[in-house]
From TrEMBL:
EC number: 2.7.11.1
Superkingdom of the organism of origin: Eukaryota
Stretch forming the signal peptide: 1-27
Membrane topology per record: Single-pass type I membrane protein
Pfam families in the cross-refs: B_lectin, PAN_2, S_locus_glycop
Gene Ontology terms: biological process: recognition of pollen; response to other organism
Assigned GO CC terms: plasma membrane
Protein's name according to its UniProt entry: non-specific serine/threonine protein kinase
TM helices/strands, residue ranges: none
Keyword tRNA-binding: no
Domain Bulb-type lectin: 27-146
Length: 422
């Protein structure tokens, strides 16, 4: 009798293993033909469940999903197709030919590792967070070589790679090792951050393979084959030297800043330990086209230059501003509205084409007279310089600490903002 009574239990056990095995692969090799989808809420995990690859709801729309590798607790560190989102009918498939493919509900392949027919026999999520496609002998593709916006400990970020978020791109310059941040659009790119962390080293040497890493102790380092002595210290995390069961990582955030973070295992919050651009309002495009960045206490806020403008998207001030009356609708009846303590951001090499040595009155009048000029800035910092903005995307910064006076071209009459109450 006892033997018979055990049977239903055995069956239940069998049934559940059969269900669980294809869904939850703890560190085991993931065989060809395996599929993840938002519907089956399955995941491919590293041996100790430190990282797992699964579909998570997209940050832009709750009905869409991205295939992401997340650290235990929820910090995402990589996503297939740089965050390409699929609907609930989508999938991530390791095909029988060894290609890893992100497919949306309509069957369109949105992204692929391009490894079909190269002999891939299995995939693995490693304890480091690296997703590896391999055969019995070697690694044929790894996510560490194709970062999206994040670099984790033991990942090597080289000058051949980019981190990308929206219009922003982070890279390490191949010859100088400078860290660079760029804002990009269809036909323009603005480098708003370009910094060497050891000028005696970056100034006098051409590097061969500069590589950025974040160490388990929180140091952000730049190493290079030509740098025989010691690596360049880019930054110490604020909690440098602190240890524990945590993840440290670098991320290009959607606000265009590169930051170092740490996150405790199991916790969903990462805490900031360093940021490359100390002054967030210096990030080009942070407040969108024609947006003005300023600080409310320590928080950057976005507004419009004057009441001649309105927010392009009232629910997101970062989307910039547009004129209530377009300049082409008031030919011959434009005026330059004065904006105190304000700069229109201008970085090399744009600076060379847009700067002139003229005083504040000419800085205003020259822009008014030039049909293509939309705004100007008299630096008033002793340099005697005036920037005439002819670009079709301009980004402004207002701070009581800025000596500059700017002018923005609007249809008559100019309608200043009420004085800031900060
Ligand atoms: C998994 O965790 C155990 C216990 O903490 C540890 O001994 C082992 O080395 C870990 N395995 C890996 C691959 O990190
Ligand atoms: C699948 O992707 C294609 C191409 O991006 C797109 O046209 C289509 O609408 C998508 N279908 C679904 C269901 O998301
Ligand atoms: C990195 O970005 C640059 C310019 O934005 C581009 O030319 C290059 O192809 C990108 N590299 C990779 C690996 O995506
Ligand atoms: C690297 O950054 C330094 C400033 O830190 C700058 O003077 C230098 O021109 C930059 N080098 C390149 C190649 O952009
Ligand atoms: C800068 O680099 C030079 C050359 O490698 C090295 O001798 C020097 O110690 C470094 N300085 C700092 C502050 O890291
Ligand atoms: C500035 O911050 C205060 C306190 O957080 C808030 O009440 C106020 O609305 C903010 N002002 C703007 C312009 O964002
Ligand atoms: C300029 O525009 C204003 C407001 O629309 C109007 O009152 C004024 O007459 C115009 N001036 C000229 C010279 O067109």
């Amino acid at each position: 009798m006892p033997a018979l009574q055990q049977r239903p239990g055995d069956l239940a056990l069998l049934c559940c293993f059969a269900l669980l095995l294809p869904l939850l692969s703890h560190g085991a090799d993931i065989p060809l033909g395996s599929t993840l989808s938002p519907r089956n809420s399955a995941s491919w995990s590293s041996p100790n469940n430190t990282f797992s690859l699964s579909f998570t709801p997209s940050s832009t729309s709750p009905s869409l999903f991205v295939a992401a590798i997340t650290y235990a607790g929820g910090v995402p560190v990589w996503s297939a197709g740089a965050g390409a989102a699929v609907d609930s009918g989508g999938s991530l498939r390791l095909s029988s030919s060894g290609d890893l493919e992100l497919i949306n509900g309509s069957g369109v392949v949105l992204w692929s590792s391009m490894t079909g027919g190269q002999g891939v026999t299995a995939a693995t999520v490693e304890e480091s967070g690296n997703l590896v496609l391999k055969n019995s002998k070697t690694t044929l593709w790894q996510s560490f070589d194709h970062p999206t916006d994040t670099v984790v400990m033991s990942q090597k970020f080289t000058s051949r790679m980019n981190l990308t978020t929206g219009p922003y791109v982070f890279s390490v310059d191949k010859s100088s090792g400078n860290l660079t941040l760029r804002w990009t659009s269809e036909n323009t790119a603005v480098t708003y951050f370009n910094k060497g962390y050891n000028t005696s080293f970056t100034g006098h040497m051409t590097l061969s393979s500069p590589t950025l890493t974040i160490q388990t102790n929180g140091l952000v380092l730049l190493t290079d084959r030509r740098l025989t002595s010691s690596p360049v210290v880019v930054a110490y995390s604020s909690n440098y030297g602190e240890s524990g069961d945590m993840l440290r990582f670098l991320r290009l955030d959607s606000d265009g800043n590169l930051r170092a973070y740490s996150a405790a295992r199991g916790g969903d919050a990462a805490s900031e330990q360093w940021s490359a651009v100390a002054d967030q309002c210096q990030v080009f495009g942070y407040c969108g086209d024609m947006g003005v960045c300023s600080y409310n206490g320590t928080s950057p806020v976005c507004g419009c230059p004057s009441q001649n403008f309105q927010l392009s998207n009232p629910s997101n001030p970062r989307d910039g501003c547009r004129r209530k009356v377009d300049l082409e609708n008031c030919p011959g009846n434009t005026t330059m509205l004065q904006l105190d303590n304000t700069q229109f951001l201008t970085y090399p090499p744009e600076v060379a084409a847009e700067q002139f040595f003229v005083g504040i009155t000419a800085c205003r009048l020259n822009c008014l007279a030039a049909g293509s000029c939309v705004a100007s800035t008299a630096l008033s910092d002793g340099s005697g310089l005036c920037w005439l903005k002819v670009s079709n995307f301009v980004s402004a910064y207002r701070s009581p600490a800025l000596p500059s006076t700017s002018f923005v071209k609007v249809c008559f009459p100019g309608l200043p903002n009420p004085p800031p109450s900060l």
